[in-house]
Amino acid sequence: MEADFAAFGSPLCGEVKRFCRRVRETYREIKEDLTPYKDDRYYRLAPMRLYTLSKRHFVLVFVVFFVCFGLTVFIGIAGPNVIETSVARTDLNNSLKLKPFNLSSPPLSTYNQQLWLTCVVELDQQDVSLKKNVSLTVKVLGVVKDGSTPYVNNQVHNRTRLLSCTQKCSEIIVAHLGYLNYTQYNIFVSFEDLYKLTYTIQNITFTWKTYNPTFSQVEIWFRFVFVVLTFMVTCLFAHSLRKFSMRDWGIEQKWMSILLPLLLLYNDPFFPLSFLVNSWFPGMLDDLFQSLFLCALLLFWLCVYHGIRVQGERKCLTFYLPKFFIVGLLWLASVTLGIWQTVNEVHDPTYQYRVDTGNFQGMKIFFLVVATTYILYLLFLIVRACSELRNMPYVDLRLKFLTALTFVVLVISIVILYLRFGAQVLQDNFVAELSTHYQNYILVL
Q1: Which of 432, 316, 327, 426 lies closest to 373, judged by CA?
Q2: Which residue among 203, 291, 396, 413 has the highest number of C-beta atoms inside a 10 angstrom radius?
Q3: Is there a contact between 370 and 295 (Cβ–Cβ < 8 Å)?
Q4: Is the separation of the CB atoms in 83 and 436 below 8 Å?
Q5: What angle (nearest 5°) sits at the alpha carbon of residue 154, between those of residues 148 and 159?
Q6: For residue 442, what are the contacts with CB-CB under 8 A and spacing of at least 6?
Q7: pLDDT higher than 50, residue 435
């Protein structure tokens, strides 16, 4: 009996072992088939609607894009002006030259957001070429409900500004308040060196500048609409890829999963806090979100044009680290300047880093060098990707569509940048006066 049982058990164990071996081999084949590498992954990526679009559909996509952009342009042109100005003209005579000017701002609300005081010196002679440092003494007082006027920051500020005149004198920013704690301000301004000028001063025109309250209300609604639309698109994108493993996502799809949440922050769902809280924090948070999204977009272009050629594992040290280093320097420079300006303005409304910081010129050169390095690196990646992948099916389609869309975005951004700042974008004073050059809402959108 024992011999018969042993003879019966031996074939059964052999069959079980062979069955288990076939199961393991089948599982290994299925796993290799589901997780391909290298060139085979070009055809195994999660499907993109881009592959099923005809030429007519491509044209329709760009037509819809330009129609939406044109609608935005129309709304911006027909919309309210961003900056509201109020002129306080002061006539001079010899007895008033050395006395301080007492200037009262118009009534303010939280919808005015910020407040600037600028001045323009008018000389009695035309076509005068003059450059001279002028000392200012500025005292800022806030008017409360009981009529008292406490000091803002409890001190008098002494600053030096450059008076530059060619055909007429350029505008001087006297003070800037990044957020408003009071419904009205009194500012005392005195010039220490005007009497030393060789030309006679005919007049000094002071101008109050604030955000238009109507624009602020429109901005709240536009940001709300963009936040809702971005959230809907993010949910639809996540829903469309729910059936696919992240290993099979294309690099564009992976980056879209990062850019869409950052775009949601770029539209700033916390923006209404700036009208509810009298603090510099909501404004700085908005600047931080914008810099994060824009630098992520720059990083996206580098990674996509390089990653579309490199399939499989992308090593952090050789693939991501150089790109993070270049874009990180741009982000660090922009955030440092923004936070630097905001924090110093909280303690001193007359602070301007372009004239009050000796290192600003060095920071500007550093920023331009890093930006030039980024542009050259991006052009290198684009040329190499187009030369290597132009004959590969599907990949060349992705490359062409991405390049066309990138080109359109860059052209529109450069045109809007030029329309907003003009030739001042290359001058030393453009950064400090960014917020005063809006003409209508299109330049904000």
Answers
A1: 327
A2: 291
A3: no
A4: yes
A5: 120
A6: 72, 73, 75, 76, 77, 79, 416
A7: no
Bridge partners of 176, per DSSP, are 116
Q: What's the CA gap between 204 and 208, in Å, rounded?
A: 13
Query: How far is 445 from 435, CA to CA, in rounded Å?
Result: 14
Q: What would the two tokens of residue 235 be?
A: 């949910």
pTM: 0.74
Computed on alpha carbons and rounded to an integer, the radius of gyration of the chain in Å comes to 31
Instruction: Provide the pairing of β-strand 115-123 with 101-104.
Output: unpaired
Tokens linked to 395: 């990949």
Q: What's the CA gap between 75 and 221, in Å, rounded?
A: 13
Distances (CA, A) of 283 to 17, 71, 73, 213, 299: 69, 28, 25, 17, 24
Question: DSSP letters of 175-216?
Answer: EEESS-SSSEEEEEEEESSGGG-SS-EEEEEEEEEEE-HHHH
Name the strands in the sheet holding 157-165, side by side, starting at the edge strand that comes first in the sequence: 101-104, 184-191, 130-143, 157-165
Minimal CA–CA distance to 194: which of 135, 122, 119?
A: 135
Is residue 55 pLDDT above 70, yes or no? yes
Tell me what the pLDDT averaged over the chain comes to.
76
- Tokens of residue 210, six digits: 């604030």
Pull the structure tokens for residue 212. Answer: 């238009």
Residues whose CB falls within 8 Å of the CB of residue 123, separated by 6 or more in sequence, listed in order: 130, 165, 169, 199, 200, 201, 202
The residues, ordered by sequence, that sit 6+ positions from 127 with a Cβ below 8 Å of its Cβ are 166, 167
Q: Which residues pair with 132 in a beta bridge?
A: 163
pLDDT: which is higher, 42 or 175: 175
- 32-36, 275-279, 322-326 — which is least confidently predicted? 32-36
Single-letter amino acid, residue 277: V
Residues 6+ apart with CB under 8 A from 96: 90
